[in-house]
Amino acid sequence: MLFNKKNNEQKVLDCLARLIEPELFEKLTLQSRLTVTNKGTEISLSLPFYAPTWLAQLQQDSAQQLTTLLGQEVSWKVSYKVPTYEHKKVAKRNNNIKNIIAVSSGKGGVGKSTVSVNLAIALAKNGAKVGLLDADIYGPSMPTMLGEKSTKSTTVDGKLLQPISAHGIVCNSIGFLIEDKDAMVWRGPMASKALQQVLNETDWPALDYLIVDMPPGTGDIQLTMSQNVALTSAIVVTTPQDVALIDAQKGITMFDKVDVNVAGLIENMSVYSCASCGHQEAIFGTGGGKKLAENQGLPFLGDLPLHISYREDTDTGYPTVARDVHSHLVSPYLTIAESLAINLYKNLKATIEQINITEVK
Ligand SMILES: Nc1ncnc2c1ncn2[C@@H]1O[C@H](COP(=O)(O)OP(=O)(O)OP(=O)(O)O)[C@@H](O)[C@H]1O
Fold first, then answer.
1. Which CATH entry fits the domain spanning 97-347: 3.40.50.300, 3.10.129.10, 3.40.640.10, 3.40.30.10?
2. In terms of Cα–Cα distance, which of 175, 176, 136 is closest to 154?
């Protein structure tokens, strides 16, 4: 049979088109190049996000079809390059940081910090380079949650602060600089200035994502912070009950006001899961976060159970995703991290061309 390069390229594309959701496929192929030759079949793919489960599923689902279509087994060569997404323009930008993602909540105590730290570690576990900035001036919790309670920020050159490395991520926190009681009395402009200072005066290594744990609420402080930092996107964390959802809605409105994309909602403490017997109970109600996301036309990134280990693990300085003992508590975070990375790619515009699908040999 005569080898038809163009035909085979089209066959591969058609097969992938059946397996990838249309919106995402269109965006991926818009910036793709696929070439096929007859010396063995290798799909060389440069992906703009880290999504190991999504990729494994795609490879598994397409394996049989591709082998049949091309008459030989297909191997994949995958590399990753997370793009820098377009974001609102503010004065200063650190070139080492590709994307800054704020994690916020309309209401205090919904688990925003717990989600921030575990999500940051989950993104890193999936393969990304991740930093975490603790901007929660009312109660910086990252020193405790990362097991670095007695650590203070240091500087090598007398100018830039060295971030703390822990559990596969780097972090800086207002808590590494000042005592908690000092932070509590800060007013808006001071708090916002402190955030910008910690952001701009830290010696961040090259990062795909910097996760910012924002102070809870939607007041002037949060508004000013959101305005003055070059945020790529924001995540709103909520619990399922009505009162939290009303505040989550305020959070979404706040980001709309300052023209920051909302990457999606996460529902924390969705279902109580008993550590002893596994019994599950929806004590705060269920499905509220998903419904709010639907009403707002926003992605729902996922839900997380209410489980004692999440609290114990961060209290002891070893976040659940880093400990990796309870896979049923880790996997929701890995899924949310994938969902976040894919949704950012789907909904934002990359500043540079990113993806190549090339079949070689
Ligand atoms: N899914 C969960 N299961 C069990 N406990 C949780 C869960 N999420 C958070 N917690 C616990 O709830 C408490 C509040 O969480 P966290 O400090 O992360 O909330 P927050 O929204 O950042 O609070 P703040 O408003 O003080 O910033 C902590 O003790 C934390 O360990």
1. 3.40.50.300
2. 176
Cβ atoms within 10 A of the Cβ of 207, count?
Answer: 22
Would you give the end-to-end CA distance of the chain in angstroms? Answer: 18
Structure tokens at 249: 């809605």
For the chain, the structural domain boundaries read 5-83+352-360, 97-347
Which protein residue's CA is at the shortest distance from atom 3 of ligand 1? 306
Ligand 1 contact, 317 CB (< 6 A): no
pLDDT band at 9 (very low <50, low <70, confident <90, very high): confident
36 annotated as belonging to a binding site for a ligand? no
Ligand 1 site-directed mutation target among 114, 119, 312, most atoms within 8 Å of CB:
114
- Show Cβ contacts of residue 185 under 8 Å, excluding neighbours closer than 6 positions: none
Q: Is 355 a residue whose pLDDT tops 60?
A: no
pLDDT tens figures, 102-149: 999 988 889 999 999 999 999 999 999 999 999 887 778 999 999 998
Rounded to the nearest 10 degrees, what angle do helices 22-30 and 5-19 cross at?
Answer: 140
ipTM above 0.95 for this complex: yes
3-state SS assignment for residue 305 = coil
269 within ligand 1 shell (Cβ under 6 A): yes
User: Highest mean pLDDT: which of 136-140, 237-241, 357-361?
Assistant: 237-241
Among 311, 314, 315, 329, which is best to mutate for testing ligand 1, by the most ligand atoms less than 8 A from CB? 311
- Any binding-site annotation on 109? yes
Q: How far is the CA of 113 from the centre of ligand 1 (A)?
A: 6
Q: How confident is the model at residue 75 (pLDDT cuts 50, 70, 90)?
A: confident
Going by their DSSP bridges, the two strands 207-213 and 97-104 should be labelled as: parallel
Position in ligand 1 atom list of the atom nearest CA 116: 18
